[in-house]
Amino acid sequence: MRIAVCDDDKNFLKELEEKLYQYSCISRVESYSHIETFFMDLDAGQHYDLVLMDLEWGEQRTGISYVEQLYNTAPHLPVIYVTGFNDRFAQHILLKETNLAGYLTKPIDNQLLEKYLRKVMDSRDAGKILHSSSKGVRFLWM
User: Range of 66's domain?
Assistant: First the structure.
């Protein structure tokens, strides 16, 4: 599985990348501390099986808006939100149409991370599409 990790904290990126490579199902992890680079790589044809997206970017946009942008170009790409600010974003994550596959809080719980990775792999292997929508009230959760 190829994973993109998007977070503006370079120390966290390194830590999570090391953690992900401990799983035999992970063939490649690309870390992005600049969200623009992630979108440029996608536009250039880079392919991922999963994106882990930080919710807090210290800018005017949040990870929620970046995932909405991602959904418009790659609606079948599953996303796991990652945040250290659980109370700030919890009520907003389902307001946008996305392909939400999970929600992790920092520090990352290894067992929960493994469950989410398995969920994404099982969905991909079964040909299922993880999907979330609040306006059309359309959800597919396993």
Answer: 2-140
